[in-house]
Write a structure and sequence with these properties.
The protein has 359 residues and is α/β, with parallel strands linked by helices. The protein has helices spanning 14-26, 41-47, 53-62, 81-88, 134-145, 164-180, 199-210, 223-232, 244-257, 295-307, 311-327, 347-358; strands spanning 3-8, 32-36, 64-67, 93-99, 112-118, 128-129, 157-158, 185-190, 217-222, 239-242, 267-269, 274-276. A 10-stranded mixed sheet has the order 2-1-3-12-11-4-5-10-8-9, with helices on both faces. Strands 6-7 form a two-stranded antiparallel sheet.
């Protein structure tokens, strides 16, 4: 039976990298039944909403989705569609492998890390008060009464929320993933020396879950130390488990270790639903130019193939993609020695080269 999968091309560079990725996925011979849905800036013009209900219905029904990036205006404007999708579909774990392929231009070789980031809580929980909001004054009265000092009148406020429930399920996800994919060690990363009641709870909860997985090594590292360790000795780590904000920052650091955002894939997972998308955003300045690297979305597609049990097809796409990188010919500007290298090819030519290698 065909795999019915929701496709959300997104906006900016999304549609062109999605076209290239769909062509490569179809070249595997796996039977797909794509269910295309629009979200983001273009959907707002057509449907009056950046996240039409029918998009959510489609993902809920199909259980698997592949998505291009979606622009989030800075400061004002609508809240992030990406964050809304993760929340409304209860995709609580963000999975970001960072694996280097020979031939990629990077200061590091042989990187093979996996980041598991909690996706809903922490400072990204959406509990924020704008400067001048009377709620800040009320909270200030509470902090003053508790001996923690006043909050300045001209302050904005974002709350950091970490729960046992949220941490338990993402930690369980991390250990189950480690077991399934042969990872030997889980390193929880937070800063409990300062944030005793949030990051402290994160560590304590992860430690408790670790107790149920005696076959997998468990350790805890402070996030500032981890930033340095990853630059100096990335080979000491295997799977990193982090709260939302640190996970966001360190997954870009790990993308830097493996050659940049052009090759950094990701997935957002819940108990039933999986949504695959690259780490990078919509790079609006390159939209419609057939210029950017489609490999991060293609590698997200490889993760999707593994998730739906199409292991052979996943190996085939990954092998062909690795061969194209190793050859270094049919790659986009970001993988060339300089960004204005005239031999760089376009987005769709990368797909052509990969399909040829899949032969
Ligand atoms: P970005 O990832 O879109 O782009 C940053 C830079 O990285 C680009 O200018 C480009 O030089 C490079 N880059 C990104 N993707 C590339 C690719 N595939 N190939 C080659 N080079 C690539 O980050 P940004 O500029 O901070 O964000 C742009 C928009 O994307 C914002 O609105 C942001 O909110 C949104 N965003 C969306 C997602 C998502 O949809 N999940 C994720 C991150 C950012």
């Amino acid at each position: 039976m065909a795999h019915r999968i929701t496709v959300i091309p997104g906006d900016g560079i999304g549609p062109e990298i999605m076209d290239a990725t769909i062509r490569v996925l179809e070249a595997t011979g796996v039977d797909f039944d794509w269910d295309y849905r629009e979200a983001g800036l273009d959907a707002a013009e057509k449907y009056g909403s950046v996240l039409p209900e029918e998009v959510l219905d489609s993902v809920r029904k199909n259980k698997v989705a592949i998505k291009g990036p979606i622009t989030t205006p800075r400061g004002g404007g609508f809240r992030s569609v990406n964050v809304a999708l993760r929340k409304m579909l209860d995709l609580y774990a963000c999975l970001r492998p960072a694996k280097s392929y020979p031939g990629v231009r990077s200061r590091y070789q042989n990187i093979d890390l996996v980041i598991v980031r909690e996706n809903h809580e922490d400072l990204y929980g959406g509990v924020e008060f704008e400067k001048g909001d009377p709620a800040i004054q009320k909270i200030g009265e509470l902090t003053e009464a508790a001996g923690m000092g006043r909050i300045r009148d001209d302050a904005g406020l974002s709350l950091k929320i970490i729960s046992e429930t949220g941490t338990t399920r993402v930690a369980r996800f991390a250990f189950e993933y480690a077991r399934k994919y042969g990872r030997r060690k889980v390193t929880a990363v937070a800063k409990d020396n300062i944030l005793k009641f949030t990051d402290g709870l994160f560590f304590a909860t992860a430690r408790k879950v670790a107790g149920r997985y005696s076959d997998i090594e468990y350790q805890e590292v402070l996030v500032d130390n981890m930033a340095m360790q990853l630059v100096q000795k990335p080979e000491n780590y295997d799977l990193l488990l982090l709260p939302n904000l640190y996970g966001d920052v360190l997954s870009d650091l790990c993308a830097g270790l493996i050659g940049g955002l052009g090759v950094a894939p990701g997935a957002n997972l819940g108990d039933e639903i999986a949504l695959f998308e690259p780490v990078h955003g919509s790079a609006p300045k390159y939209a419609g130019q057939n210029k950017v690297n489609p490999m991060a979305l293609m590698l997200s597609g490889v993760m999707m193939l593994r998730h739906i049990g199409e292991t052979q097809a996943a190996d085939c796409v990954e092998g062909a993609l690795a061969a194209v990188i190793a050859e270094g010919k049919s790659v986009t500007y970001d993988m060339k020695p300089s960004p204005d290298d005239p031999t760089a090819v376009g987005t769709s030519q990368v797909a052509d080269a990969i399909i040829e290698k899949m032969g």
